[in-house]
Amino acid sequence: MIALRAGEPAAAEDADPRRWWGLVVIAMAQLMVVLDATIVNIALPSAQHDLGISDGNRQWVVTAYTLGFGGLLLLGGRVADLVGRKRTFVIGLIGFAGASAIGGAATTSGMLFGARALQGSFAAVLAPSALSLLTITFTDPRERGKAFGVYGAVAGSGSAIGFLAGGLLTQYLDWRWCLYVNVPVAIVAVVGALTVLRDRPGHAGARLDVLGVLLGCGGLVALVYGFSEAQPRGWADPVVLALFAVGAVLLAVFVWWQSRVPRPLLPLHILQDRIRAGCFLTMSLAVFSVFGVSLLLTFCLQVVLGYSPLRTGLGYLPMTLASVVASTQISARLLPRVAPRMLMAPGTMLTATGMALLTRITVDSAYATEILPGLVLMGLGMGLTFMPIYATATAGVAPHESGVTSAAVSTSQQVGGSVGTALLNTLATTSGTAYLAAHLHDPAERATVVRQGTVHGFTVALWWAAGVMLLAGLAAILMVEAKPAAHGPAPVALPQDARRC
């Protein structure tokens, strides 16, 4: 269980006087990593035209980033624990900026794909370092709640901000600036990190579990790759089935190996804790729904309703603002006083309700009456859900394991998002195709029926997403039993018998 000892919170005079500036730096880095998963979505048609990318290969602009990010997160978290969070944070920022510059200057499709994979790889180093730095910087329970409120708002709204930024940059500058924009942000963050962030030294004497790296990262990459290929190839394709089988075998061997190696990549007691495992499961299921719905809604707004890239991005602003308000003004204030599941469960219900409201969309929907209410409820729900997950999952962890625990949170997010996007997109496409076959009787009406079929597929996927979101709430209710005091202070050492690694 996640438990804290009496008297553990640091005294006010021992707190880092520059901790709030440190939060600004960490939030900048986290926003850059999160929004980069979506900022190129709106720019993709322009990039495809400029570089001559085929329809079959254009998915790799997104998938390459996801593979690098989701597949290497555990490695990034362990590296942060071994050599120090601040050092890996700065390295991640510099590498991410360099990869962004290469992608912005890409002259071929292969160069862009490679740059996106490199971005994801450095994001896998940067993300767990950022979360673990936040965890060791804020030790006062109330301040920690506020800090995680800001972090949760950034993490929860990053996708929507990415859509808005992508629309602005693509419409008024050039698609390449969707990548170039990371360079100045990273430079400012590096200067800030070197100036205001403090860190504890890495875990002396620890060694990197090389076989664990190969098994864990290889298994995750195989699964993510399999889900990315399921849409174009089909779920029964031998390549897809082989990737799933390889991924499952590698992850099973990974778990077996982690129980036997003296210095594991992922100490299994992190997963054996019921509360922390509940946070990971809730995160995966919630992001499963949110990522898939965001992608499908963007497609629906632009293709069916004819929104421009900028208008599409602006359409997400209410959801972003609602998420920020819920994270900073509701979750952050209530988390020190109520159990995390008392925020997470209502949050998932609000998000599911918002998705249900979005099923009212038609080919002639008005934004204010049939889209806006659902987006606002989704934003409020995400703010109530994600912030407590981040705070609770990383509480009570030994300092030398804060990086790998943070990486496990991010891994659950990335894997859930990848699976959700693939599954919900397949459901939407299949349902839309079936609708077209059943309702297309007059070729002259094809354009109208195609739009109606697209909306039908979207609504079918929405109902499934809402159901999965309710499962996320159920997981939180049954597994996340922590009391308010259990996630107040910064991470502290676990009992001696739980720290064997």
TrEMBL record:
Locate the transmembrane regions by residue number. Answer: 20-40, 60-77, 89-112, 118-138, 150-173, 179-197, 209-227, 239-257, 278-304, 316-335, 375-398, 419-438, 458-480
- Recorded topology in the membrane: Multi-pass membrane protein
Under CDD domains, the record lists:
MFS_MMR_MDR_like
Q: Give the signal peptide, or none.
A: none
According to the lineage, what is the superkingdom?
A: Bacteria
Q: Where in the cell is it found?
A: Cell membrane
Query: PROSITE patterns, from UniProt?
Result: MFS, SUGAR_TRANSPORT_1
Kindly state which keywords UniProt assigns to this record, in alphabetical order.
Answer: Antibiotic resistance, Cell membrane, Membrane, Transmembrane, Transmembrane helix, Transport
Major facilitator superfamily (MFS) profile domain residues are 22-484
**Database matches in Pfam families:** MFS_1
Q: Does the keyword Repeat apply?
A: no
Q: What is this protein called?
A: MFS transporter
Whose protein is this, by species?
A: Streptomyces macrolidinus
